[in-house]
Amino acid sequence: MIKVAVVGASGYTGIELLRILHGHPEVEVTCVTSERSAGKSVAEIFPSVRDRYSLVLERLEPVRVAEKADFIFTALPHQAAMEVVPSFLKLGKKVVDLSADYRFRSPDVYASWYQPHLNPEVLRTSVYGLPEIRRDSVSDAFLVGNPGCYPTSIILGLAPLLRNGMVDHTSLIADSKSAVSGAGRGAKVDTLFCEVNEGFKAYGVAVHRHTPEIEQELSLLAGESVTISFTPHLVPMDRGILSTLYGRLAEEVSTTRLLEVYREFYRGEKFVRILPEGLYPSTSHVRGSNFCDIGLVVDQRTGRVVVVSAIDNLIKGASGQAVQNMNIMNGFPETMGLDALPLFP
Fold first, then answer.
1. Residue 331 lies in a domain
2. Where in the sequence is the domain holding 49, given as residue range(s)?
3. Using CA atoms, how far apart are residues 316 and 310, in angstroms rounded to an integer?
4. How many domains does the chain have?
């Protein structure tokens, strides 16, 4: 049994962590923090956990948090995380950070898309926490940068093609749609009900901050520099990401053969499901779960492959993947606490 703190527990990823960890047999949540809701009980902020959590949200004081917990999840905004993560590491705690602050290998890349990095020496010790690709590195890590939601859906969708040199990586396009919860719990005009209901729009076109994260990991898979055209869209639903991915095939291949490649690549992976030929994922079939569903087809007419991947942006795209990383870092079974089937309808 390990004692766990959730730093930044009043957002959507925070409550998802609390919900998942409540069912984890090897975890006790002993500390929760929130600057804006300090002094209130968790149940006041999230009535869904009434009678299951009696913890009171505290202000973030790293030494105090470290005294109460063995393992730390930081679910803070970008930049806020790097102000406290080094303190937790110096105090001997393992950390999974859900912000972008520790996802990048290069501090210069991080600075060009976010802001100057406050502790690049720590950045160099972090591990990018996509378990299906980086499991061995995650198991030895003290600091894991939990992947973004869009990158998770795109990297898992394209990894077998790039690792096997089956696609022209200069031709990659990612067309992704996300639920509104991906924008966080803070009040913003763009995510008000009347702004998103009955609407469907692209945003961050050609400038979205997840682009360099995606390119970093795809380049490592391909063994050379990869660029991608990435366009995210906002859809009026609570949860889910659907990414439709396009690439020109390096050689003629059938859909049946590509599906065999994907099944072999993800053989033994508990959270990646490769769908039968002719079937494609739906966000409604992964909702509330840590699954990533993938379907694909070869478009013989154009010589392109079309890959479709679906995840719950708050689970496999954030908190579920964070718990998956925690399990690996602590030697627990990887699926522990994450066995729940998707919610349907």
1. no
2. 2-125
3. 10
4. 2
**Total count of residues recorded for the chain:** 345
Sign, Cα dihedral of 187, 189, 192, 197: negative
Q: What is residue 309's three-state secondary structure?
A: strand
Domain with residue 86: its CATH number is 3.40.50.720
Long-range contacts of 123-130 (CB under 8 A, 24+ apart): 126/97, 126/102, 128/103, 128/216, 128/217, 129/96, 129/321, 129/322, 129/325, 130/155, 130/156, 130/217, 130/321
Does 325 fall in a domain? no
Render 263-298 in DSSP notation, one character per residue.
HHHTTT-SSEEEPPTT----GGGTTTSS-EEEEEEE
Q: Are residues 154 and 302 in the same domain?
A: yes
Token output for 210: 């997840």
Q: Specify the CATH number for the domain of residue 202.
A: 3.30.360.10
Closest CA to 234 of 186, 195, 277: 195
pTM of the model: 0.97
- 149 as an active site residue: the answer is yes
Site of tokens 């569903």: 293
Condensed to tens digits (0 to 9), the pLDDT of residues 152-174 reads 999 999 999 999 999 999 999 99
**H-helix or E-strand spanning residue 84:** none
**What are the pLDDT digits (tens) for 67-102?**
999 999 999 999 999 999 999 999 999 999 999 999
pLDDT, one tens digit per residue, over 281-294 is 999 999 999 999 99
Given 31, 149, 194, 292, the catalytic residue: 149
Confidence (pLDDT) at 257: 98
How many Å apart are CA 256 and CA 41, to the nearest integer? 53
Q: Amino acid letter at 42?
A: V
Beta-carbon contacts of 141 under 8 Å, excluding residues fewer than 6 positions away, are 94, 126, 127, 129, 329
% of the chain exceeding 70 in pLDDT: 100
Across residues 36-54, what is the average pLDDT?
A: 95
> End-to-end CA distance of the chain, in Å?
34
Of 87, 36, 45, which is closest to residue 65 (Cα–Cα)?
87
3-class state of residue 150 by DSSP: helix
